[in-house]
Automatic annotation (TrEMBL):
Residue ranges occupied by any 4-vinyl reductase 4VR domain in the UniProt entry: 103-159
Protein name stated in the entry: 4-vinyl reductase 4VR domain-containing protein
Annotated Basic and acidic residues bias: 279-288
Native species: Methanolobus vulcani
Residues covered by region (Disordered): 265-288
Length: 305
């Protein structure tokens, strides 16, 4: 099998944060305020973005850019960074454990209108590092290689994963059986796919355990790890979108969504439902058959006339 090779990564340093004295005082304060807001978004949202290994595993095992882009994790990652305020990031180059992301029209660069000929996207670099390290549990290094403020057409960032960390998340019990010389209970097609992935990651060589694979297996045998199982952060959003598509009225969808996101408290007996007036009950029933807030309000006003 041909070696997939590595993309032509650049080695120049991303540098430190841009100095505040470049530009006017107003520009510096504007940059500070914008960065403060961005940092607050990161602090608020990153703790809620933790991804289970089974989803990260699909991302790691995808062997082409198209396959990576089709994973739920990649789609979540791109939308997550856009919602935070880091722009329309996209993956443009890939090799196993090495990724290059690009951000056209990077909004972070707009924080520094007076700065030129330097890389300024430290916030994006730090956010990528936090996302991979904290939310995906993948040790990595992140470097900004190109920047719009440095005269480049896009801002580009390369992410290099630490191999041991990537193997720990990527390999499931069936993969470890293969590396141990034991056939897992899978069909021939899945077996070939798994062997191909292990070969791409240089754990197997011509169907046999490679030196890297042998070293990892010796290392991993002394690292008992209990994989945590939990829902990915995008599951609730997908369920709510599915509910919205499956209901014909706003009232029905709203009720189903409210039930989905409600967290019951089982520590105490449920209180009896409060009594409602005949008028309130009528409005509740009307909402179930109404397509929008505007339509419901129109009906209420009509009845009051």
């Amino acid at each position: 099998m041909a070696d997939p090779g590595l993309p032509p990564f650049m080695t120049n340093s991303a540098g430190g944060p841009p100095p505040a004295m470049d530009g006017s005082f107003g520009q510096s304060m504007g940059a500070f305020g914008a960065l403060l807001k961005l940092q607050q978004n990161i602090s608020d949202k990153f703790p809620k973005a933790k991804v289970p290994w089974n989803e990260t595993r699909k991302f790691l095992k995808a062997s082409t850019i198209e396959q990576i882009r089709s994973t739920s994790l990649y789609k979540f990652h791109m939308k997550f960074f856009k919602d935070i305020g880091l722009g329309n990031m996209q993956l443009i180059s890939y090799a196993p454990m090495h990724y290059i992301f690009a951000v056209p029209n990077n909004p972070v660069c707009n924080f520094y209108p007076a700065l030129q000929n330097q890389k300024v996207c430290v916030a994006t670099t730090d956010a990528l590092h936090r996302f991979f390290r904290e939310d995906l549990e993948l040790e990595c290094s992140v470097e900004e290689t190109e920047c719009i403020k440095n005269g480049d057409p896009y801002c580009k960032f390369k992410v290099d994963l630490q191999p041991i960390s990537a193997y720990q998340v990527m390999l499931d019990d069936y993969d470890k059986k293969i590396l141990s010389g034991i056939r897992p209970p899978v069909d021939d097609t899945e077996l070939r796919d798994r062997v191909r992935t292990l070969t791409i990651y240089k754990l197997l060589d011509s169907g046999r355990l490679s030196e890297i694979g042998n070293a990892y297996m010796q290392f991993a045998s002394n690292m008992p790890v209990q994989e945590k199982v939990f829902d990915p952060p995008w599951k609730l959003q997908e369920e709510l979108s599915s509910i919205a598509e499956s209901h014909n009225t706003f009232g029905g969808a709203f009720g189903a969504m409210a039930q989905k996101i409600q967290v019951p408290d089982n520590s105490a007996p449920a209180a009896p439902a409060p009594a409602v007036s005949e008028e309130t009950a009528k409005l509740q029933e009307e909402a179930k058959n109404t397509g929008s807030f505007a339509e419901l309000l129109a009906k209420m006003k009509k009845e009051q006339q």
